[in-house]
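Target protein
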Amino acid sequence: MTQTPKIILTDIEGTTSSISFVKEVLFPYAREAIQGYLEAHFNEAHVQTILQQVFAEVPAAEKVSQEDTILAVTQTLQGWIDADEKKTPLKTLQGYIWQQGYQQGDYTAHVYPDAIEKLKEWHKKLPLYVYSSGSIKAQDLFFTYSDAGNIKGLFKGFFDTTSGGKKETQSYWNIAEAIGAKPEDILFLSDLEDEVTAAHAAGYQTCWLQREKEKAEPLSISPAAINFNEVDQLFFS
């Protein structure tokens, strides 16, 4: 590390929050609700936009009848969920479905206590941003309806796959440009080695989160930490 970061960009799943909440609560909830949501909102503009994005990738999903189209699109989206595909139309639809779940009180979003504590501390001295494969809408909801209450205000902005894939170096240049910052001034936090590698290649400072380990094992290109307390010690002490 050559300098103290001026900006933090953080991942969510496996970084601020447990993978199990996303995998075991959010994904199954959305998977089960897709067909009903499409049936209830088929003619609304936001759903029509999502459908056109699906058809662009899978033309065969567009059928003659509305009923057959809904079934085909549902199967396509469920297949993407099962394959853990980070497709923008899927992420967008999940955001709308999860909104219903949050607002109905079906669940609250998990955030690690150490993440809450340090995000609140860091917020007082530098801008915080989020970059997740989940849509910006889903990120907004996640931190609005968290275990710790509404903490969305800790973040200055949110980025998703519309900025590019998280394993692509170009995406991190796009985000730095959007923020108006030099890559070397940004600290990126993620639990995935490929994402850390891509951010490092873009010139970011990075830290690999390894929450399941008792002791972090750094990469040759990046330090590592098991929680946000260790991130704080590495970069701000």
